[in-house]
C-alpha cells in the first residue's frame, strides 16, 4: 500500500515522565485521531496505529531526544504532520523534528546517553568509580529476563564520566545499544554508588538516542560491539532473590526494555 513514513523526534518531560510506555502509545493514538492524520493500522482483532518507538523510555526518566516512526496511508508533508501533532500534544510532550523516511527504513538504536546531576559530596567518589568500572575487563550484572543469567555489560560501556554541569557536576552514562544486549541505566547507577539519589529527587535524563541510519561518518574503532552477549548461568537462589527485588521495585524492572525494538537484556 502506498503511503508515507514519518520519523519524529520528541521530548518527554515534567510529570509526563511518569507515564508508562503503554499509556504513551495510547496517547499517540488519541493525538493522531484528534489531528485527523491518515495513519495506517495494524492487523488483528485489536488494530492500532502503526507507531514504532526506537527504544522505549524507562518509567520516570526524562527523554530529551526520543524517536518514533509513524506510517500513513497517503503522502504527507512532514512539516504539516509536525504542526498538527504539536497542536494536540499534552503538556510535557514536545515534537521537535519530523522527517520523511523510506517505508522500509527502521530507526535502529545504536547509542544512548543517560545523565543525572550529582551533589558535591558524591562527585569525587562517582568519578573514581567510573574509572574503576572502565578499567575492568568484565563487569557482571544479574538479569532475570528473558532468562536468568549473568551478563557482562563491559562491552556496552562506551564511556562513564562525571562532567561539569552549570554550577555542579553530572554523571553521564554513554552506552552502546545492540540487537543482542546493552547495559541499563539503573544497573550502572547502583554500580557507581549513586542509585539512592533518585529517591532524593534527582532526575535521570536520556539526553541522546542515536540511530544507525542517522549516524555520520565515525571512527572505525568507535563502534558498538559485534557478536553474541557474554553470559553465564545464574544460580537459582540468586535468580529467586532478584525476582523478589524486582517485585518490590516494578518501575526499575522495566528499564531498558523496548517491545518493538531490541530487547536490551
Q: What key phrases describe this protein's structure?
A:
25% helix, alpha+beta, Alpha-Beta Plaits, 265 residues, 11 strands, three-stranded antiparallel sheet, globular, 2 domains, eight-stranded mixed sheet
Give an account of the 3D structure.
- This protein is α+β, with helices and mostly antiparallel strands and 265 residues long.
- The protein has two domains: 4-101, Pseudouridine synthase I, catalytic domain, N-terminal subdomain (Alpha-Beta Plaits, 2-Layer Sandwich); 109-253.
- It has six helices and eleven strands.
- It has helices spanning 21-34, 78-88, 120-135, 185-192, 236-248, 250-253, and strands spanning 4-12, 51-53, 62-72, 93-101, 109-118, 140-143, 149-152, 157-165, 168-176, 204-211, 231-233.
- The strands form two sheets. Strands 1, 2, 3, 4, 5, 8, 9 and 10 form an eight-stranded mixed sheet that branches. Strands 6-7-11 form a three-stranded antiparallel sheet, with helices on one face.
- A hairpin with a 5-residue loop joins strand 6 (140-143) and strand 7.
- The chain is globular, with a radius of gyration of 19 Å.
- Mean pLDDT is 91; it is low at 251-265.
Number of individual domains: 2
Query: Uncertain spans, ≥5 residues at pLDDT below 50?
Result: 251-265
Mean pLDDT: 91
Question: H/E series, N to C?
Answer: EHEEHEEHEEEEHEEHH
- Number of helical runs? 6
Overall spatial form? globular
**What is the first-to-last residue Cα distance?**
35 Å
Largest sheet: 8 strands, mixed
- Strand proportion, as a percent range, falls in 25-35%
Report Rg. 19 Å
Strand tally is: 11
- The assigned structural class equals alpha+beta
Fraction of residues in H or I helices:
10-25%
Amino acid at each position: 500500500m502506498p503511503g508515507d513514513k514519518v520519523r519524529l523526534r520528541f521530548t518527554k518531560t515534567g510529570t509526563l515522565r511518569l507515564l508508562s510506555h503503554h499509556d504513551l502509545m495510547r496517547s499517540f493514538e488519541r493525538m493522531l485521531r484528534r489531528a485527523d492524520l491518515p495513519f495506517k493500522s495494524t492487523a488483528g482483532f485489536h488494530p492500532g496505529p502503526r507507531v514504532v518507538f526506537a527504544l522505549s523510555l524507562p518509567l520516570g526518566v526524562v527523554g530529551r531526544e526520543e524517536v518514533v516512526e509513524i506510517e500513513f496511508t497517503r503522502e504527507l508533508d512532514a512539516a504539516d504532520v509536525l504542526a498538527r501533532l504539536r497542536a494536540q500534544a499534552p503538556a510535557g510532550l514536545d515534537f521537535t523534528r519530523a522527517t520523511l523516511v523510506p517505508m522500509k527504513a527502521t530507526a535502529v538504536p545504536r547509542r544512548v546517553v543517560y545523565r543525572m546531576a550529582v551533589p558535591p559530596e558524591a562527585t569525587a567518589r562517582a568519578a573514581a568509580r567510573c574509572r574503576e568500572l572502565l578499567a575492568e575487563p568484565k563487569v557482571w550484572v544479574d538479569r532475570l529476563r528473558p532468562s536468568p543469567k549473568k551478563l557482562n555489560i563491559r562491552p556496552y560501556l562506551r564511556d562513564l564520566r562525571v562532567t561539569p554541569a552549570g554550577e555542579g557536576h553530572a554523571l553521564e552514562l554513554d552506552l552502546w545499544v545492540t540487537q543482542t544486549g546493552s547495559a541499563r541505566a539503573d544497573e550502572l547507577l547502583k554500580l557507581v554508588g549513586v542509585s539512592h539519589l533518585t529517591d532524593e529527587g534527582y532526575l535521570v535524563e536520556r539526553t541522546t538516542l542515536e540511530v544507525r541510519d542517522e549516524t555520520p561518518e565515525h571512527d572505525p574503532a568507535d563502534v558498538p560491539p559485534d557478536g553474541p552477549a557474554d553470559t553465564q548461568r545464574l544460580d537459582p537462589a540468586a535468580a529467586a532473590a532478584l525476582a523478589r527485588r524486582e517485585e518490590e521495585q516494578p518501575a526499575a524492572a522495566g528499564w531498558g526494555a523496548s517491545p518493538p525494538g531490541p530487547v536490551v537484556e
